[in-house]
Write a structure and sequence with these properties.
By secondary structure, the protein is α+β, with helices and mostly antiparallel strands. It contains 17 helices and 24 strands. Helix content is about 30%, strand content about 25%. Helix 4 packs antiparallel against helix 6 and helix 12 packs parallel to helix 13. The two termini are about 55 Å apart.
Length: about 575
């Protein structure tokens, strides 16, 4: 049988009345009025059309079908007497001459109601994802993803970038996360790895003489899921530019992304170029995080000097950070609830007081501040009605971190301080090249070991390593890290010195990154790049609660594919072919 249709289920209009048409789709539901009258809703990818059953014979045929059976309807379009203005086809209906079954649904009960699948348990949704995706509300997010990727490709091509794909099977390398490894059949005891990112390959392309590269790149990392991170695999807009500086990368991103966010986003405003640029140090000290949400118009204030020594126990010997929240009029119950949230997020306490309309310090820790009221008001720049939330910790970094959470939770409560309906981008720049590892207590690379140190070889030879910054940058939007990038260290001499500082020599670099190091020895151009996450981008655009909502076939948070049963067992024969033996 030829499975054809003359129109989609969202296409017919009042001008089509009288036409003989063929529609195909899923039998969504039917309202039965009598034994020879019923109103069937037919749904396809594009929309729905009402089918009016007016004969007992056709009614009997349809009564034998389960909902979600795919059918083909041949009939005539007529004007509806009771119009539905909520759908595009609401002025017409189709009176069928025949109904043919194309694909029978054999189950009389579904795991969930299709149009209410988002209310179902997530395990059921993931197991029956092919049913979940029939829900127009769920499907729209996948359509949005396709449109966003298409627009990104178009924009990158217009900026002179070539789309080049890079290998999926490659060598394992230490890039920060755990590799997915693939055993080799031909080389016993050896393994491929799935790429955590195309990082080395795109740098090799620059060394090969390609000027501007991009791809919508799949990346594989064996790491745990979060609301904004999918376990296993994700996609990024990966790009690299030869003979480029940090400013060149910024210019491209600032031109490519805002139009995409304005066109496809829930909010229709996005930052214009140039984006705000905030040093890593300033971000931590002013916002309490290296991922600040600039829609919140608040900054931290170092208040150690003015609030320390006031007699309040937790402040003694502590670093104190305050967040002044003008216009916050929360009740004591509301304040306590937000302070409890701070403690849940940080495992640390928040304290507070306010300046009332009479200019008196009241509430919370107010009694400890009465003898220095005027100094506190002046130092914090308080006006009557201002609310002040405070973090106090022995380490300044800890105090800033807690205050950053305070800033976020209290700031969103005041509409005048929180411009919610926009996308606010910023660059976090000047990341430290090195740090003291929390676990090792030794000097380590802070982020990407292949970033170019600011000051080059001279800085590495003459300066305290902890004072050296790297040409590394993060792109942040609405408090979410969208991407990291860097100017690459393309000079073998500088690279060797950078690794020597953390106790690794030339042989270590050669053995761990042989292709890239050797390529650089043949004359590499300066190059820089970045890789905004596509999944996270789409999640922000449609304001989805988790990243799984915008991935066609996502894994569960525990890393399992509920639909296909991965990870699963393989046969003994398969294991022998790749020289693997499973032991207890």
């Amino acid at each position: 049988m030829t499975q054809s249709r003359t129109h989609t289920c969202d296409e017919l209009r009042i001008s089509d009345v009288g036409k003989k048409v063929v529609l195909a789709g899923w039998y969504e539901n039917m309202r039965r009025v009598s034994k020879n009258l019923g109103f069937l809703i037919l749904r396809d990818f594009y929309g729905t059309t009402q089918i009016v059953i007016e004969t007992e014979e056709l009614m009997n045929e349809v009564n034998e079908l389960n909902t979600e059976t795919t059918i083909q309807v041949t009939g005539v379009v007529r004007e509806r007497s009771s119009k539905n203005t909520q759908i595009h086809t609401g002025e017409i209906e189709v009176v069928p001459e025949k109904v043919d079954v194309l694909g029978k649904c054999i189950y009389s009960e579904l795991p969930f109601e299709i149009n209410r699948s988002k209310e179902a348990d997530e395990t059921a949704r993931l197991k029956y994802r092919y049913l979940d995706l029939r829900n127009p509300e769920v499907k729209e997010k996948i359509i949005l993803r396709s449109k966003v990727v298409s627009r990104l490709r178009e924009s990158m091509t217009n900026h002179g970038f070539l789309e080049i794909t890079t290998p999926i099977l490659t060598a394992s390398s230490p890039e920060g996360a755990r590799d997915y490894i693939v055993p080799s059949r031909k080389y016993p005891g050896k393994f491929y790895a799935l790429p955590q990112a195309p990082q080395q390959f795109k740098q090799l392309l620059m060394t090969s003489g390609f000027d501007r590269y991009f791809q919508i790149a799949p990346c594989f990392r064996d790491e745990d899921a979060r609301a904004d991170r999918s376990p296993g695999e994700f996609y990024q807009l990966d790009l690299e530019m030869a003979f480029a500086s940090q400013e060149d990368v910024f210019a491209v991103i600032e031109d490519v992304l805002p139009p995409v966010f304005e066109e496809f986003g829930t909010y229709k405003r996005a930052s214009k170029a140039p984006f705000a640029r905030i040093s890593y140090k300033d971000a931590l000290e002013q916002y309490g995080t290296d991922k600040p949400d600039l829609r919140i118009k608040l900054k931290l204030k170092d208040s150690t000097e003015i609030l320390g020594g006031c007699g309040f126990g937790p402040f003694e010997g502590a670093n104190i950070e305050a967040v002044v929240v003008p216009g916050y009029k929360g009740t004591r119950k509301q304040i306590d609830a937000i302070c409890a949230q701070v403690e849940v997020v940080t495992a640390k306490k928040a304290y507070w007081f306010r300046l009332d309309e009479q200019g008196e310090i009241v509430g919370g820790i107010a009694k400890f501040l009465q003898d220095r009221k005027d100094e506190v008001i002046k130092a914090l720049g308080l006006k009557n009605g201002d609310f002040v939330a405070v973090a106090a910790e022995q380490k300044k970094a800890d105090a800033c971190k807690v205050a950053g959470v305070i800033r976020k939770l209290f700031g969103v409560e005041v509409p005048e301080l929180f411009d919610k309906e926009c996308y606010e981008f910023c660059w976090i720049v000047d990341f430290p090249m090195y740090e003291i590892g929390e676990e090792s207590g030794e000097l380590e690379f802070c982020h990407n070991p292949f970033s170019m140190p600011q000051g080059g070889l001279k800085a590495l030879c003459e300066e305290d390593p902890l004072s050296i910054n790297a040409y590394q940058y993060d792109l942040v939007v609405n408090g979410v890290e969208l991407s990291s990038g860097a100017v690459r260290n393309h000079d073998p001499e500088i690279m060797i010195k950078a690794f020597e500082i953390v106790g690794l020599g030339e042989n270590d670099v050669r053995s761990k990154f042989p292709a890239m190091y050797n390529a650089f020895c043949y004359g590499a151009p300066p190059h820089a790049g970045i890789a905004p996450g596509v999944d996270r981008m789409v999640m922000l655009l449609c304001d989805a609660p988790t990243i799984r909502e915008i991935i066609p076939f996502p894994m569960a948070a525990n890393g399992q594919d509920m639909m296909c049963g991965a990870p699963g067992e393989v046969t003994e024969k398969q294991l022998k072919e790749v020289h693997i033996k499973i032991t207890e």
